[in-house]
Amino acid sequence: MKNEDFNMLLSSIKEAGEIKKGIKEPSRVFEMGAPEIKMVRKILSVSQSEFALMIGVSVRTLQNWEQGRRKPEGPAKALLRVALKNPKAVLEALHAG
């Protein structure tokens, strides 16, 4: 790895740490709202309990997301973004299709 690439990577890691600690604001934020989450599930043609099982969350968590009481974070948020853009890939990856 070139020094320039390493320094850029190191800078990005430090910036991520500052964002996580609340020291710095992220340059962009992706929010997935309740309608999008419900739409993902409907596109996949699965029930709440089936979808919750597929993505590894409780039905209650999924219901909270769909009703806007809570928002998905971390890996769940990333998986939902992928599911919205490419539902077939998610079904294949999760062996549900």
Can you tell me about this structure?
The structure is a single chain. The protein is an all-alpha fold and 97 residues long. It folds into 2 domains: 1-29; 34-93, 434 Repressor (Amino-terminal Domain) (Orthogonal Bundle), CATH 1.10.260.40. The chain has 6 helices and no strands. The chain has helices at residues 3-21, 34-43, 48-55, 59-66, 74-85, 87-93. The longest helix has 19 residues, at 3-21. The protein is elongated and about 50 Å long. 12% of the residues are buried.
Write down how many β-strands occur, each being a DSSP E stretch of 2 or more residues. Answer: 0
| Distance between the ends | 40 Å
What is the name of the CATH architecture of the largest domain? Orthogonal Bundle
Q: How much helix, percentage-wise, in residues?
A: 55-70%
The percentage of residues in β strands lies in: under 5%
Number of helical segments with 4 or more residues: 6
Largest beta-sheet characterization: none
Elements, N to C (H/E): HHHHHH
Question: Notable features of this structure?
Answer:
97 residues, mainly alpha, 434 Repressor (Amino-terminal Domain), 6 helices, elongated
What secondary-structure arrangement, pairings included, does this model have?
Blueprint: H1 3-21, H2 34-43, H3 48-55, H4 59-66, H5 74-85, H6 87-93
Helix pairs in contact: 3-4, 5-6
Give a brief outline of the structure.
With 97 residues, the protein is mainly α. The chain has six helices and no strands.
